[in-house]
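Page 42, continued from yesterday. The earlier attempt failed because a stray header line got pasted into the input along with the sequence. Redoing it now with the clean sequence only.
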Amino acid sequence: MSTKEKSLNFIEQIIEEDLKNGLSPAKLRFRFPPEPNGYLHVGHASAICLNFGLGIDYQSPVNLRFDDTNPAKEEQEYVDAIKRDVEWLGYKWAEERYASDYFQELYDWTVELIKKGKAYVDSQSSEEMAKQKGTPTQAGVDSPFRNRSVEENLDLFLRMKNGEFEKGAHILRAKIDMASPNMLMRDPIMYRILHEKHHRTGNKWCIYPMYDWAHGESDYLEQISHSFCTLEFLPHRELYDWFLDQIYDTEKVRPKQREFARRNLSHTVVSKRKLLQLVEEKHVTGWDDPRMSTISGMRRRGYTPASIRNFADTIGIAKRENLIDVSLLEFCVREDLNKITPRVMAVLDPVKLVITNYPDGNEEWLEAENNPEEETMTFRKVPFSKEIYIEREDFLSFNDDFVSKEVRLKNAYIIQFEAVTKDTNGVITEIKATYDTDSKSGSGSEASNRKVSKTIHWVSVPHAVNAEIRLYDRLFTEESPDTQEKSFLEFVNPNSLKTVKGVVENSLKEAKEGDKFQFQRTGYFCVDRDSTSETLVFNKTVDLKVTVVNNDKKEENLLKLSIPKNINSYFKNNDLDKKSEFEAAFKNDISAIQNTNLLLNAFNTNMNSVNDKKSLLFANMILNYSNNLDVEEIERDKIDKLFNFSGASQSNIVRAEMVEVFNNNNYLFNSYREQLLDLREKETDPMVLEKFTKF
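This time it went through. Structure tokens are written below.
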């Protein structure tokens, strides 16, 4: 793997260290090991991108292994959904494996452990065992069955396997240490009795291995070199290694478990149990409801694989848990959709507008561009007629002062409002207007260049395609619904879905499920599978621009809009006094921001554009001026990246800002002292040199 193009995260550093210590690159093998007891969510997406990304970077195989050791909760439906999600994200696995492939090997190893006196059958109730387990500060008590003879244990275990006992009558435990400070080492359960039909092995087995016993051994059987999991499995590592010690052959690769932090997403939950509860209690329509944090839900909503991969890369891998604002995910989605979606016209709250001086029965097919982001511009034809639909809000924005107001119809003509018709409730049912025949867009006429108050979108009435449009909001009203004292269900947003009846332009009549569009001036939308030949159904994917639904609106606008705009102006302005004003404003704006998640997300986002001097300056300013972001909370590989690319920047402003950051922060200065000395020896710019204040 090349380390010249990017800094390594701590996971990659572990792999690189193992390679330096003699592990052959040919023996690198990774895996993604989901349990098929639910649909995958956004947290799994990060783990998928991590493991399969490592496979790509190191040109090593990655297995997709289903840890299917609990038939009471696992189904083939979940297996199929998981495979579909991984493929949709753009990854291919080397081998499809299952823990159930190894049930016989696991059983045979267990028999050998019993023979060696390292496992025994316990016949106590779960309540009795829990009492004997002890506490973190108090040793456990041996089970009265801990010293059963090998013969009796073998006999009972065989009879458990043969189905002679009811569920709960016996369990098999590893004999380790009831006084261990790690409570997971206090004779953990290896097998339990379950009279459940397995989705692959049917009724062949009446006993099933526990996850801790099956997981590491499955890694070993597949010769996985590195087993990466989330932080809650850190205490399990000691047990993972103990089990491997019992079977390890020095001629084979020994898997290494290492842990990374969960990246929780705001305004959602990422527990499969809680996601299932949302489905079963019908707070949502299913696992793939577009409001869900599942990969299937995000796919149905219109998110793209590239946007999710970019999101995973942006938030990175860390050693500490962090709450990621959902707006960062939405930013990644919006950024990708902007590049790939055609611009079309859709009216979500239509009111009819009649152009009184347009010839009856006449129609025109006007030219409209598809996407200005395209390298080679393409166009489509849209029909125009005497009667069109416009957005009610566009007209109402004039209040009662509409007479003689002019607006441009996108890709068409300038019109002037004349009159309205209202029903008995005062609701506008029809608007009348006239058009300027010489004002056709693109004609080059003097009239076509006339400035008007606004440009609005529209849809021709006789050509309109009926549409049901589903407008989605956050599923939860709270940023962290999962960490409150109340049940997470109390924070379900009752207004998370609003359905409206609208119309879309004629070019969409053949649109298919999954097709994505930008509804001009509104947002990004995706065709839903519920569409019929009479009515297209669209899911709103994300707003056209950043929207904020919490009290951090001002801070988020500062980080995403105002400061970047001012940085751009800062680089363009050569007036030194003006530059000083900008610098004072940057310091004031950034130091006032309280939300550390927004600050961290802004830092990570700017680190994606390391060759852009504006992004590098912004990232350095966040560290330099923020009073609420602890630099030690930031991943070391991101700091390495900031140091290396800033130090190599052609902009002396960027280099000076970076040196100031690393000089003023004791943690950074002590960590990078030698590198700073090297930079100072190479630096020639006086403005940068004066920032090396500690040398």
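Notes: The two ends are 35 Å apart (CA to CA).
Reminder to self: strip header lines before submitting.
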